[in-house]
Amino acid sequence: MSAHEPPRWLERVVEWAMPQGLSGQSAVGDLSEEYERRASRSPLRASIWYAGQTTSVLVYRIFTGSGAESTGDDSDLLMDLRWSLRSILRHPGFSFGVIAVLALGLGANTAVYSVVDGTLGKTDWWAEPDRTMEVWPGSGFSYGNVEIYREETTAYRTVGGYLELALALRTPDGESQSVNGVRITPSLFRSLAAQPMLGRAFSDDDAVVGIEPVAIIGEALWKQSFAGDPGIVGKQIDLSGQSVTVVGVQPAGAVAPGGRTSVWIPLVMDPRDDDYFKAQNLTMVAVLRDGAGMRDAAADLVAYTEHLTWLWPSFYPEAWAAGRANVERADAAQRAMISTPLLLLLAGTILLLLVTALNVGNLLLGRAVERRKELAVRASLGAGRGRIVRQLLVEGLVITLLALVAGLVFAINASTWIAGLFVGEAIVSASPILSASVLLFSLGVAGFSWLVVNGVPVAHFLRTQRSGLNVAPDSGATVQRTLVTVQAALATLLLVSATLLLVTVENLRSVPLGFEPDRLVAVELSPPSDRVVDIPAARDLYDRLVERVGALPGVEAVGLTGWLPLRAQAPTAPINLESAPVLVRAESVNAPKHYVDPGFFTTLGIEPLAGRLLNSDDRAMGPSAVVVNETLANRLWPNGNAVGQRIAIDPHAWESWLPVVGVIPDIRSGDITGPIGPAMYVALAEAPTRDITLVVRTSGDPAGVIPVLQRTVSEVDPLVPVRSIDPMQYVARSAYSTSWVMMGLLIVLALLATGLGVLGIYAVLAHHVALTRREIGVRMALGAQPEVVVGGVVRSGLILAGIGIVIGNVAALWSTRFLESLLFEVSALAPWAFILPAVALSLAAALAAWVPAVRAGRLPPAEVLRSD
After folding, report:
1. Secondary structure (3-state) at 565
2. Radius of gyration of the chain (CA)
3. Fewer CB in a 10 Å sphere around the end CB: N or C, the chain?
């Protein structure tokens, strides 16, 4: 037996299984020819392949009995499934690679969609989301403002407000636990979509002054801190030193308003409270009455602002709210903050899936070309075109379903990871992967992938198969090259988008903050009201916190501020100049007023540009002073003589002059992308605030100090809850978190798409070299140099990539305009953003083409000609 002939006993089995006649003899001959071609490269692999074909033909003959045309019943479908599974097992490496690549694309799409669905697809904050409005978003209101608006409005049936805060919960084991809470008017609580699963909702009587305090707790807190005690309703718990009665338990997932709430407390409006009109910290939300619309709500707001002008003309001048006061859906802010990046991310993953499906289709096309002899054999056994097409579709379906299962497993962890990347104020969550909406989406994208993956080889088979064993000698090269070009175009599109966001994030990171966030930790606290109303008590609390924290190992400096830079903007206050006084507040200049202690500037490393900083003598009932930033100094005293000037900043004491003792560099307070505005700084002890932040500079890694800081605050006063404790680098990153997350995820998608595109180029050229071995051998036998052959193959790869890059850049010129809202100090049409990805992709394509090109250049001409 020749080394290039199949094993005789296997050949006899094939002859027995084949139908009688010329078609059966031809099929046996075709299998022998294919064996000889494979044996010239690897006799062992050729024998294994021939044994697999023999087994397939034999099993088919046993099940069909005669090789007649398929009946199309259920047994045929089961046979297709068995055939598909055997095909996968016969080529485990190829099958695993195809399934893994497709699973990655399907899993990424499912994970991102679960985040989109969990964040944008839920309207469970409010029972009537389309009719629930936030009044003047971004502006704070006092208790008195809410009461006045409730009395004046005609557009709403419900008007209320809420305030987010932190509370100290005393657990049954005596430990103090910080929890996120919200004070909310009872009517507004009843407008939430989620209502208590145990107990009851708030009633209006719960907000009466002097009534026994009550609270509703979340299911997670109930289970974690109270072991899910079914008798929790009616029991009293300790919240920030006050005994309150639990009247209800909110179900899991009910975290509104605010997005992180675990305790709800009725908002009690006491006109005798100093903060009744003074504290402008409530978010006002109202529900439209039947028949009312946005126009009615806007008209009501205009009437309200006019009423305030009539009540307090010195505080509210004519038309003071013109162009600024508006109403919008109560969920608009959180949706707008995150909807654009999430939808762009979903579009990017869909592009990745398209690249993945095209790549898998390309690989299956190459395999289908290699199997054309096998398909011809099946045709000789009586299988018609429809029967073979169904077999190909079932094979692709099995691969797609296996990839879908693997993709769902991948998405379970990936969705949580993606949601966790978003930091800051955006409330991002992921729906369960096995929820109906996510599963439906997964099945949809899997079906789309199945059509793309299988449409390529099926279309090629239908185009090349003529009749019986006559299969057109079409290599499928044209289709493969077209698919690779499309892959390169999509990869280019993602690379351009990722490059723009990469530069954006670098620009945002280089924005001057006025301080270095390295080695800084921010500890946000919410002392109970009795701790800050009494000024001596507040001073004592502040002094003890600074003293104890400052004595900790690894702490270099400690400061206090009422509003943490980059996370909160201080409320504005009027400024009356002694050198140019005005009679009423409405005619004055306004600037944010920050309350800080002397250690704040030291901790942030701030040095005065002129004069001095605040010191321990600058406090209430003593000499008071003001420090201004450079922007405010230049605006009010452009001649540079700010130090020594006197100003009044209390509208209730309009001629109580305070000296400006220093000018400091600008410190970025709120928005990281806008210009730094004017600001002034006064002693925190003059007006203790309900929320304060400890800013701590450490000597080493801030993460190592965080647990100690948490414990120390609890030891100083267990009734002072910690709202958050984060390194300032995290706070700074949260200021541009959307762009940062989008950059990272788009880079991952772009690299994956590029890798798949490069893999496609390699597969096409490797297949091309395998199919043209004889031609290459002839050329080299006639004197063609190896470098010429290598250059031709590499040139083919670069041409494929080049066409795709051009198409991708054209698509990017149109699509990158959707990124403009996320870009900072970079144009969406920056030339280098298109050039750099083109160069990178071209180099990757050249590298992918080099491997099969070198293989072609090393082919021995004599051996090629002899074997073919």
Report:
1. coil
2. 36
3. N
State yes or no: cis peptide before 129, omega within 30 of 0: no
Give the Cα separation of 287 and 331 in Å (integer): 12
Q: Which residues on neighbouring strands pair with residue 237, listed in sequence order? A: 244
N residues, the chain: 868
For residue 505, the one-letter residue type is V
**Contact assessment for residue 845 and residue 488, using Cβ atoms and an 8 Å cutoff:** yes
Angstrom distance (rounded) from CA 678 to CA 522:
23
- What pLDDT band is residue 66 in, cutting at 50, 70 and 90? very low
Backbone phi, psi, residue 487, to 5°:
-60, -45
Residue 121 pLDDT: 64
**What's the token pair of residue 342?**
């999430």
User: In this structure, what is the dihedral angle of CA atoms 785, 789, 794, 795, given to the nearest 10 degrees?
Assistant: 90
Tokens representing 101? 């690549």
Q: Identify the DSSP state of 131.
A: T
Could you tell me which of 388, 490, 401 has the C-alpha nearest to residue 447? Answer: 401
Give the model confidence (pLDDT) of 718-753 as tens digits.
888 888 888 998 888 877 777 777 777 777 777 777
Half-sphere exposure of 460 (CA within 13 A, CB side): 28
How many other C-beta atoms can be found within 10 angstroms of the C-beta atom of residue 692? Answer: 27
- pLDDT grade, residue 474 (50/70/90)? very low
Query: What is the residue type of 329?
Result: R
> Buried (b) or exposed (e) across 478-493, using 16+ Cβ within 10 A?
ebbbbbbbbbbbbbbb
- Look up residue 164 and give its amino acid: E
Report yes or no: 671 and 717 within 8 Å, Cβ to Cβ.
Answer: no
Q: Which residue, chain included where needed, has tokens 């021939």?
A: 50
User: Taking a C-beta distance cutoff of 8 angstroms, is the pair 493, 746 a contact?
Assistant: no
Beta bridge partners of 520: 697
> Which pLDDT value is given to residue 20?
54
Report the candidate in 481, 496, 360, 356 with the shortest Cα–Cα distance to residue 797. Answer: 481
Tell how strand 626-629 and strand 658-664 pair up: parallel
Q: Confirm if 297 and 288 have CB atoms less than 8 A apart.
A: yes
HEC readout, 242-255: EEEEEEEEECCCCC
**Count of CB atoms situated within 10 Å of the CB of 298:** 15
**How far apart are alpha carbons 818 and 317 in whole angstroms?**
40
Which tens digit of pLDDT belongs to each residue from 521-556?
Answer: 999 887 776 665 667 777 888 889 999 999 999 999
Q: Give me the pLDDT at residue 197, please.
A: 93
3-state secondary structure of 816: helix
pLDDT at 741: 73
3-state DSSP helix/strand/coil percent for the chain, to nearest 5?
A: 55, 15, 30
Using a 10 angstrom Cβ sphere, with 0-12 exposed, 13-18 middle and 19 or more buried, the burial of residue 602 is middle
Region for residue 9 given its phi and psi (left: phi exceeds 0; alpha: psi -120 to 50; beta: otherwise): alpha
Q: If we measure between CA atoms, which residue out of 816, 743, 840 comes closest to residue 507?
A: 743
The DSSP result for 740-804, as a single string, is: HHHHHHHHHHHHHHHHHHHHHHHHHHHHHHHHTHHHHHHHHHTT--HHHHHHHHHHHHHHHHHHH
Residue 443 has phi, psi (to 5 degrees) of -65, -35
**Strands of 562-625, DSSP E:** 572-577, 589-596, 610-611
Overall pTM > 0.85:
no
Which candidate, 317, 402, 328, 417, places its Cα nearest to that of 360?
402
Tell me the pLDDT tens digit for each residue of 430-470.
Answer: 788 888 888 898 899 888 888 877 776 666 666 665 444 34
Share of the chain above pLDDT 90, in %: 16
Q: Are strands 132-135 and 283-288 parallel, antiparallel or unpaired?
A: antiparallel
Q: Are residues 679 and 594 in contact, defined by beta-carbon separation less than 8 angstroms? A: yes
In 87-170, the DSSP E strands lie at 132-135, 156-170
For residues 513 and 565, the answer to whether their CB atoms sit within 8 Å is yes
Question: pLDDT digit string (tens) for 77-113?
Answer: 566 666 666 666 666 666 777 788 888 888 888 988 8
